[in-house]
């Protein structure tokens, strides 16, 4: 039986929740990443990757590119294990990571704009599991 894209994304969400903590913890060990995140220079995107907020120095853009290469490798491996596409898994992971942002951190809203997380839940794509 072939599953729809949405069904596979929903199935992967449970695994993504369990696996998000180790991957997120790995990235947050980098002090440069932690500082850029705290300063609102980077934020979580809906596609599961880290984004550069506004016009940032080359060092920040390079940091984001490096972390996204690592995320993609991680997502590729985990998507294969879940029999999902890379895009499905990354999207589900984006939903999880946006939900885990803390007040003051940046994230991409469904309309594509950068938002600063408040005490309220973040705006998430309605397709998020």
Radius of gyration over C-alpha positions, nearest whole angstrom: 14 Å
| Backbone structural class | alpha+beta
In the sheet with the most strands, the strands line up as 2-1-3-4
In terms of DSSP E residues, the strand content is 5-15%
Unreliable residue stretches: 15-22
- The count of strands amounts to 4
Fraction of residues in helices?
40-55%
Mean pLDDT rating: 86
Elements, N to C (H/E):
HHEEHHEE
**Sheet with most strands:** 4 strands, mixed
Instruction: Please indicate the count of domains.
Output: 1
Q: Between the first and last Cα atoms, what is the distance in angstroms? A: 21 Å
The number of helical segments is 4
General form = globular
Report a brief summary of the structure.
The chain is α+β, with helices and mostly antiparallel strands and 129 residues long. The protein contains four helices and four strands, in the order H-H-E-E-H-H-E-E.
């Amino acid at each position: 039986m072939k599953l729809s894209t949405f069904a596979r994304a929903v199935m992967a969400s449970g695994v993504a929740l369990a696996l998000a903590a180790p991957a997120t913890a790995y990235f947050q060990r980098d002090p440069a990443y932690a500082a850029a995140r705290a300063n609102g220079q980077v934020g979580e995107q809906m596609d599961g990757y880290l984004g550069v907020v506004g016009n940032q120095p080359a060092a920040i853009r390079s940091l984001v590119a490096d972390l996204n290469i690592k995320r993609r490798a991680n997502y590729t491996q985990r998507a294969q294990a879940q029999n999902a596409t890379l895009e499905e898994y990354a999207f589900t992971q984006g939903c999880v990571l946006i939900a885990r942002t803390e007040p003051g951190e940046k994230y991409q809203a469904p309309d594509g704009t950068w938002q600063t997380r408040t005490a309220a839940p973040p705006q998430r794509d309605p397709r998020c599991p």
